[in-house]
Each structure stands twice: as C-alpha cells, then as structure tokens.
Amino acid sequence: MGENAIEIEGLTKTYAASGSQPPKHALKGVDLEIPAGSIFGLLGPNGAGKSTLINILAGLVVKTSGKVRIWGFDQDVNPRQSRASIGVMPQELNIDPFFTPRAALEVQAGLYGVPKSRRVTDRILKAIGLEDKAEAYARNLSGGMRRRLLLGKALVHRPHVLVLDEPTAGVDIELRQMLWANIRRLNQEQGTTIILTTHYLEEAEEMCDEIAIINHGEVIARDSTSALIGRMDAKTLVIHPEEEVALPQMPAGVESCQRADGAFCFTYRRSEIATGAVVEAVRKAGIVIRDIRTEEPDLQDVFVELTSEKKGAA
Ligand SMILES: Nc1ncnc2c1ncn2[C@@H]1O[C@H](COP(=O)(O)OP(=O)(O)OP(=O)(O)O)[C@@H](O)[C@H]1O
User: Fold this and answer.
1) Which end of the chain is flanked by fewer CB atoms within 10 Å, N or C?
2) ipTM score assigned to the predicted complex
3) How many Å apart are CA 280 and CA 289, to the nearest integer?
4) Is 42 a pocket residue for ligand 1 (Cβ < 6 Å)?
5) CA distance linking residue 165 with residue 220, whole number of Å
6) Please, are residues 14 and 66 in contact by the beta-carbon 8 Å criterion?
7) Within the chain, which residues score under 50 in pLDDT?
C-alpha cells in the first residue's frame, strides 16, 4: 500500500428532488487524501455532508461523480477489493435483536466471505469486552454493549481502514474511553487507518493526527490538528493583579476585559503584538502581577471561525 489509505477526487453527490424538495447537492467536488496509518477526523456542522461521504466510502450511497480509491482500489474498477478494505461502524444501533453477539459476528463474517478457518470471532468478542455476553440475545444488551458489537461487526474482515460515524455520540464517559482505547490499539498495533466523524471537538483534538473540516459539501480546511490550531492568530493573556485595580491602558489592537474573579484578559493577534508588550503595559500602569497565563486557541475556535466565515461568504 502506498502512502494514502483513501484517495478521493472531485467527488460529488446530488440527492434527487423528491416531492416539493429540490435536488440536494450534498457533496460539491471533494478532493481528499487520507494517509495510511493515521487517525483522521472529519468534522463539520449538521448536514455538512459527512455521513454522505462516509456512506459513499462504505458503498452504501452511490456517488454522482468523481473517483474514490480505497487502499489503492478504485471503487468502480475493483469494487470487491475496495469494499473488503474498509469496515464501517454506523451511527444507528441497527442490530438484529434475535442474534447473539457471537451469531451477529459470524453472520457478518459470512457476508464478507471470510472462511470459517480465518474467522477471529472469539478474539473480537474479547477485544470489545463482550466475551461473557457472547450467547445473550442482542435485545438484552445495553446501548453501550450494542455499540461495541457494532464496532466488532466492522472488524470481522480485518479491514485496513475503519470508519466510525459519530462513535461516541450519546455514550457515557466510561464507554467512550473504552471505545477509544480499542480504537487506539487497533491503530497502533495493527496499523489500521481510522476515519471518524465526531461532534466532540475535544475528542478530535485529542485523538486525530489530521483533520478535514467539511461545510456545505466542501472541504474548507485540511491539515494536521496542531497546524489547524496554530493557524489561529488570536491569543489571550490572563493576568491576576495582586490588588483590585482598574483596567490599564493598552496598546492599540489589544482588546481588554475584566472577568468576574477580577482577572484581566487581553486578547490580541500574536502576529501583530508581542506578549511582552502587553505585560509591559500592565507593569507600566503600576500593577503588581500575582499570576499570569496565556489561553491558546483550540479546535473549537478554529471550527467556529472557519464555518462562520464560509457562511458569511455564501
Ligand atoms: N437520502 C437523502 N435524500 C435527500 N437528501 C439527503 C439524503 N441524505 C442526506 N441528505 C441531505 O444532504 C445533506 C448532507 O447530509 P449528511 O447526512 O451527509 O450530513 P452530515 O454532515 O452527516 O450531517 P449530520 O452530522 O447531521 O449527520 C443534508 O442537507 C441532508 O439533508
């Protein structure tokens, strides 16, 4: 396999008009390369086109135009190989209530044509912590267990690429951590490329090496997580004065405010104003500093700035 697990070129999807609904251009020419071995985040507001993109990768939605290569296999030329290279954990808990976890994994392996001798059902049951529920009916499993079973089903054919659509939406913290531990292990030990969509920006920041932000069917940013955050120019300096004093005069370009706990906060563009100049202005005003710290932007800031900019331009 080359450098990229996924290569997408000029991908479009238009859902046909139905009733009074006009046609919907859900993807408007997406180009995207996802490096093999990475944990890659797809972010975007509701309706941005993330599920459409994932469902095209999974072979569940038919694209309108463009090229998709999965693990080097063109979806149109080698549909079977490209499908065998990817596993998808869907958003909905669509599990047959009459199957046991073991049966569900076996059936799924059958669907993917995995011969009995190559099945790793017990290993998967162990990895997803459902060993002791292997023979229970799915209808008796908790929501968290069903979700883990969905992860297990996505792994039966040992795909090179694992796609997770909002894997931790509405999931409690304990289960979330367990899912992430599983996913990290797959990535580190087996080199599985992970693609995930999430609404939890903190999670994306913590988990993902690289991120693409999708808005209105277009990729509006794609970079390493740290570079995306580094792109934000705003910086905030928070200073706690020793005594209660009024806000000092600041150089032009610095926005000042005072927080409820008496701390001053100064926000400025780090490309234009040095932090030292802000500190100097505070000292010059005769203020004794008890505590000082900076607040760096996070993914939330990047996301809000990028998606609102685009909205304004549309
Ligand atoms: N089957 C469909 N028929 C018509 N329009 C659709 C269909 N599926 C999705 N859409 C529309 O396409 C656009 C993109 O939807 P999509 O579900 O891909 O977005 P998303 O980014 O995954 O959003 P969410 O985070 O809410 O799942 C939306 O405007 C949606 O209403």
Assistant:
1) C
2) 0.94
3) 11
4) no
5) 20
6) no
7) 310-314
pTM given for the model: 0.80
- The response to whether residue 198 sits with its C-beta less than 6 Å from ligand 1 reads no
Q: Which fold has domain 4-85+159-229?
A: Rossmann fold (3.40.50)
Pocket test for ligand 1, best of 11, 13, 14, 15 (most atoms within 8 A of CB): 15
Give the whole-angstrom CA distance, residue 11 versus residue 31. 7
- Going from N- to C-terminal start, the domains of the chain cover 4-85+159-229, 233-296
Could you tell me the two tokens for 80? Answer: 């079977």
Q: Note the pLDDT tens digit of each residue in 83-140.
A: 999 999 988 777 788 899 999 999 999 999 999 999 999 999 998 889 999 999 888 8
Q: Which two tokens stand for residue 27?
A: 């993807």
Alpha helices in the chain (DSSP H): 50-57, 79-84, 101-111, 121-127, 143-155, 173-190, 201-207, 225-230, 275-284, 299-313
Question: Are 5 and 36 spatial neighbours (Cβ–Cβ below 8 Å)?
Answer: yes
Question: How distant, in Å, are the alpha carbons of 19, 31, 215 from that of 24?
Answer: 13, 19, 14
Q: Work out the number of other CB atoms within 10 angstroms of the CB of residue 148.
A: 26
Q: What is the residue whose two structure tokens read 């979806």?
A: 75
